[in-house]
Amino acid sequence: MLSTESGSASRRFFYSALFWLLLPGLMGLTLATLLYVPAVYDRLPLDLKPYLSFGRLRPAHVNLMIYGWLSQAYAAAILFILPRITRAQLFSERLAHANWWLWNLMLVGAAVTLPAGLTQGREYAELIWPLDLLLIANWVLLAINIWGTFARRQEPKVYISLWSFMAATLVFVGVYAVGNKIWDPSGAYRGMNDSIVNYFFVHNLFNAWFTTAGLGLALYLLPKLVDQPLYSHRLGLWGLWSVWTGQHHQLNSPAPDWLEYLTVVFSILAAVPTIAFMVNFFMTMRGRWQRALDDVALRFLATGALFWALTCVQGLAQSFRTFSMQVHLTNWVIGHSHLAFVVDYSFWAFAAAYLMVPVLVRRPLYSRTLAEWHYWLTTVGMGIFMVSLWIAGLIQGQNWQTNSVPFLETVRSMSPYFALRLVGGLMAAGGVLCFAYNLWQTARRQASFVAVAPTPAAALTRGGGR
Q1: 261 or 98: whose pLDDT is higher?
Q2: CA distances for 54 relative to 50, 110, 114, 125, 421, angstroms
């Protein structure tokens, strides 16, 4: 149960991440179906209705995707990468396995409590107090493994990915603790302060964890997949300093004006890490773009990077009062959040899985064709999903601002866009099933090669880094 075999904990994290991708994905399709055909809900058995209501199913879908699928995929990739950029054994494989058990205990608790209506009622912070404490414990255990491996490293050069992983785990613990007020079982502050802190947490859940750790993951994968050193390690360090934001999600609210202006400034400054990463990305990819035609993992990574730049442009636009007034509380924001979570960070996780799982199970990937289907179904499906919601959001915002269309008419006009959302979601789900089946069959094949040797950090940068 607490194996000391090298890579065994990373492998387990990948397997459980895959499970927690499928379950909340089914919840998401259910929500999309109910939005397009509300009559389906009326036909449900009375005893089942509370558990499939939007107010219960949506938090379960969001939290299990965030902490089940993507966070566990990140943990799996980090545990895989650490020995390779430090030239040292993982600090404690057994601790990583204990981390895995506690992590999934937390997720089972979330899967039971949220549909049952046990929630703190704060967006993205719905987990009840005992699960909050368990989540903090999980990130602390992951941080111990990261920092412990850092302390015993044999590689003198500290690659940017290691800095990112160390920063992400430590900063996120503080962000989560403050955002969820873990010293208080209610998890809530008073009045407008609760809303301010809640959205500080929501945005920095993405900035402090998914962006900081995600950039570390991307900057490891990029030179590996293009087979050429990272263009500039120093530029990567510039991109490490993610900008903290949050209040720009509540512009034109009762929050203090000075706080709104300050966070708008910070949102604009987010262009610095964005530009730093994209310059590094394009310069490292120079002369290697043709590889993306043949390598599905590289194509997922490159597509995710390009869409991450679009996410940052959208986030910057949404930090201005005028545009925020146009799209706030509309379907535009739903499209934007899925752009960040699915097409950016999840695409990087898909790339990591295609590179790392065959090494961990010592078997070649089962099917290149299934990987191609995964890429195209997910990319096209999510494209339809997001574009339809962006258009729907602009229509909603225009109608509400001009006050020329009755509210109910605007609601009715959303039907074709919800239909496209459902179609896009079904296509993406088909891609995910290809992904899951491909990895399952890969793990079942007869072992045929051994894991690659650890890679010194200096080899990932040009001459040890610029």
Answers
A1: 98
A2: 9, 16, 11, 16, 16
